[in-house]
Amino acid sequence: MADEELNENDSKGQKDWQSETATDAATETKADSDSSDEASTDNGFTVDMDQVEAVLNATADKSSMTPQMKRMMARQEENTRRVEETIKGTKSNPRWFVPLFCILMVIGLVWVVCYYLTSNYPIPNIGAWNLLIGFVIIMIGFLMTMWWR
């Protein structure tokens, strides 16, 4: 009984959104096709895309540029200068740094696994201190990863 009332209420007061969106899309398509001639020449902007690309590539004649294009070119030059300065100021690690911390982590792992499997080696007669040695070697490798640039 509750289902019947629910279905009756839904069908009476429900709006047909699908047909409305279909008609809206049809009118938008018609409007787009009418304005396609205008959009192909202007696109709503006052600057042609070829001119923008020329400015970004710094091949434009500065005397024929609008003030907006001159500002855009100045911003582009400033951004390029900043990126170049950042790249020059970046310090990098020596070539041996990454292989060293990778090898340290692997050696530490092998040390711990070797102790677990044999319970006497890599260094006999020190017992569980082998675990500490292995974990210290692993931690040194992980600490080196924090200094990696």
Automatic annotation (TrEMBL):
The keyword Cell membrane applies. The chain crosses the membrane at residues 96-118, 130-148. One of its GO terms (cellular component) is plasma membrane. Residues 9-18 have a biased composition (Basic and acidic residues). Pfam families: CrgA. It is a multi-pass membrane protein. NCBIfam families: PRK02251.1-2. This is Cell division protein CrgA. It comes from Bifidobacterium parmae. The gene is crgA.
